[in-house]
Design a protein that fits this description.
The protein has 292 residues and is an alpha+beta fold. It contains 10 helices and 8 strands. It has 3 domains: 80 residues, no CATH class; 91 residues, no CATH class; 100 residues, Chitinase A, domain 3 (Roll).
Length: 292
Amino acid sequence: MKRLSLFIGAFFLLLLTGCDYFEKSSKEVVLAECYGKYLYESDLKGIVPENATIMDSIQLVNNFIDSWVKRQVLIHQAENNLNKEELDLKKQMEEYRNSLVIYAYESQLINQKLDTVVSEDEIEAYYEQNKENFQLRNTMVRVAYVILNEDCEQKEVFKKLMSDRDTLLLQNIDVQATYYAVKSYLDVDHWMRLDELTNIVPIEIFNTESFLKKNQFVCFDMNDYTYMVRFVDYLLEESTSPLEMERDNIKSVILAQRKQALIERMRNSVYEKAKKERAFEVYVGSPGIYAE
């Protein structure tokens, strides 16, 4: 701060030569004034880094003062062109503050009271009761695939392992793929969008349903690579999405419902408590309020 004070003194000897500067009191040096608003030396705290050169410091302070003046001019213009009701921001600020206070309290309540454990039985029950809401927008597949260099010496081994519908030896394939595959995916327990697969493996599919019914294993060469795909299961677009795909979404929905129920219980409890304590009174005869 000592460096800043010394700099301000030197700066204004250069910048304000021939100009008046203002002092509201002996303790507050005024650096600029605009429509009755004042910028003080203390407002520049933190503007100038300790390692800044004199020229850089002058530029930083000059830019800050210029920005402050332009802002005050804009505020003055806005205040002169808005009506009294538009200028009365007190109510808006109070509403905003109240919303923040309520949100903070409700967040604290949720963190302290919300039961975040969702059982598998709850998830399954919700799924069964709301199946109509789980409609697929894309065709989904469960697959394993490997991409090999076309001249890979283990091509036939991969072909035998990938095409055997009864003995899909994933662990063995995984070991082989580590050494020989350019890319592989062997997680057949998870669903993948068909278009995601075809972005990686360039299979030409003209009729989705017919293709998936007829092809459990696909192998072809293209652009110096050999592609092998083993289809384990599929679900066509607009069919019911499987539970394993919706489990996380259902859990989120259940937790959201619990949060809302918890907040509603809290609000009702607080209201009833205040009512019992006669903390409020409603005057039915007040203007704008009519009894039926």
